[in-house]
Design brief:
The chain has about 375 residues and is an alpha/beta fold. It has two domains: about 1-260, Aldolase class I (TIM Barrel, Alpha-Beta Barrel); about 285-370, no CATH class. The protein has helices at about 20-35, 50-60, 75-85, 95-105, 105-125, 140-150, 170-180, 200-205, 230-240, 250-260, 285-290, 320-325, 335-350, 355-365, 370, and strands at about 1-5, 40, 65-70, 85-95, 125-135, 155-160, 185-190, 210-215. An eight-stranded parallel barrel has the order 1-2-3-4-5-6-7-8, surrounded by eight helices. It starts with a strand and ends with a helix. The protein binds acetyl coenzyme *A and 2-oxoglutaric acid. Acetyl coenzyme *A binds near residues 10, 13, 91 and 92.
Length: about 375
């Protein structure tokens, strides 16, 4: 499967996000190191500055396909060609709503434009993906027509876009299974997160036959964002069993870069990268983890550049307290631990704060006289 990351295009379309040249270069390089297979890096039609940034990214000479996003118009394609790009996405609206808004409902004109631009793109030897904007609200018969036209003109890929994020995984599966059964063009997933299903829908599309998937780091993007790079990457490696080498440091680095450059802070429970996802508080879980380090984790913290912790909290059991007390050099009696637990619960509930690894020591020191 191909991860085509669009952090530098759809990611940057998130409200209030604007990357400068240095940030774009750093993010592109970091995405390569973290395991992206292709990058969509911007929109040349935006003008000279965007084009200059794209040229700088191309000058990095990263060994992966670099694409731009374009309306399927000659002027957008020319702007891309002037950057020296050799791969483009040519986007057309495919739902009745958007065809009405952008082409006055004229499907014939829309397809004629696509045909003209695609013809030039292919005669220039450009890898060309047709972007089906709003595919999920489109008529499947019309998508077939677009794909037939694309295939007849040598297009390389069709991007199925759930532009407003309204699909469910099962529906996506049915759409993509049908479109791939046509054997016209390979399919790329582009899914939005309006109902929190972007990654699930992207994965469902891959299971149904799509070959490629658009992602963005930390799911950045229009409105609620896109399928997240780190979630898709880890899913391909761990759930699909793809032989991908996950570079934990590179993954962590790209997430930090994008967080900072986009001025977003991710939630502590964000899959793959949230700071609390390897903090086990529940007593039964800590007890299990001490006995077997896979007991309550789907993948190791080291695999994503993180560390595990056993915070002392309201849900701690005796194993957690013992773990920390032993690390401090104590070997308390069971009855002491059992006496401490209700006090710890009381204390944590009052403070509304668990004690993280470092704070565990000071939290337990208040019971020092009981232990000695
Ligand atoms: C679903 C998506 O994410 S699509 C990508 C959206 N991304 C962006 O819009 C970010 C970058 N955009 C921009 O910088 C600007 O909008 C530009 C440079 C592309 C265009 O700017 P402007 O020429 O000033 O046009 P403006 O943004 O007001 O309107 C867009 C125009 O493109 C047309 N358009 C939109 N999509 C397409 C398409 N796929 N094919 C042809 N025309 C299209 C619209 O109908 C509208 O045309 P109109 O002016 O005749 O009504
Ligand atoms: O048309 C495309 O290639 C992608 C458009 C897009 O970003 C979307 O539909 O959300």
């Amino acid at each position: 499967m191909i991860i085509n990351d669009t952090t530098l295009r759809d990611g940057e379309q998130a409200p209030y996000v604007a990357f400068n040249t240095e940030e774009k270069i750093a993010i592109a390089s970091a995405l390569y190191l973290a395991g992206a297979d292709e990058l969509e890096v911007g929109i040349p039609a935006m003008g000279a500055k965007e084009q200059a940034d794209i040229k700088e990214i191309l000058a990095l000479d990263l060994p992966l396909r670099i694409m731009s996003w374009n309306r399927a118009t000659m002027c957008d394609l020319e702007a891309s060609l002037s950057c020296g790009l050799t791969a483009v996405d040519l986007s057309i609206p495919v739902s009745d709503i958007l065809i009405e808004a952008k082409f006055g409902g004229d499907k014939t004109r829309l397809l004629k434009n696509l045909e003209e631009v695609l013809h030039v793109s292919k005669s220039e030897g450009i890898f060309t993906c047709i972007g089906g904007e709003d595919s999920s609200r489109a008529d499947l018969g019309f998508l077939k027509e677009v794909m037939e036209l694309g295939a007849s003109l040598g297009a390389n890929r069709f991007r199925y876009c759930d532009t407003v994020g309204i699909m469910r995984p099962h529906q996506i599966y049915e759409h993509i299974a049908y479109l791939s059964s046509l054997n016209l063009l390979e399919i790329e997933m582009h899914t939005h997160n309006d109902f929190g299903m972007a990654t699930a829908n992207a994965i469902s599309g891959l299971e149904a036959g799509a070959m490629s998937v658009n992602t963005t780091v930390i799911g950045l993007g229009e409105r609620a964002g896109n399928a997240s790079f780190e979630q898709v990457l880890m899913s391909l490696a761990h759930l699909f069993g793809e032989k991908r080498i996950i570079n934990a440091d590179a993954l962590k680095h790209v997430v930090q870069l994008v967080e900072k450059a986009s001025n977003q802070s991710i939630s502590a429970t964000m899959p793959i990268v949230g700071k609390n996802i390897f903090s086990h508080e529940s007593g039964i879980h800590v007890n299990g983890m001490i006995k077997h380090d896979k007991a309550y984790e789907a993948f190791s913290p080291q695999s994503v550049g993180m560390t595990r912790s056993y915070p002392i909290g309201k849900h701690s059991g005796s194993s957690t307290l013992l773990f920390h007390l032993r690390a401090m050099g104590y070997e308390p009696e069971n009855e002491v631990i059992n006496k401490m637990l209700p006090q710890v619960r009381e204390m944590v509930t009052k403070r509304k704060k668990s004690s993280q690894q470092k704070g565990a020591k000071s939290a337990l020191y208040r019971f020092k006289s009981w232990i000695n």
